[in-house]
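W.,

You were right to be curious about this one. When I first looked at the sequence I had no strong expectations either way, so I just let the prediction run and decided to look at it fresh. Below is the sequence, 110 residues in total, followed by the output.
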Amino acid sequence: MILDKEGNVTTVLQENISLNKFISNFRDIYPKIKNDHIIINLFSFAKLTSNDVLEFLELSDTHRKSKKSFVLVTEKVSYDEVPDNICVVPTLQEANDIIEMEEIERDLDF
């Protein structure tokens, strides 16, 4: 698992591993990054479905309750294919933009 930390944002990515193993590894390292905004880069997964993305729903809900952003990045699943309470975007730039917008909303108490 590769962690790339920039300020209060941690980007997590993994190569050559199954999605289930990735999620298991992520749960193990989560306590170390739980105070950061998190971007999960899923570009390395050749096949990905909306059901695969939903595997992150519980983690996303938990993280968002602590007023931190949790964004999944993949081009294989559209945000239209998943519930509104999980954030999926096609690029890392959009993930960073979402985090900025959510920080502004939190500052304004939305």
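Here's what jumped out at me. The mean pLDDT is 92. And, maybe more interesting for your project: The chain has four helices and five strands.

Coffee later to discuss?

I.
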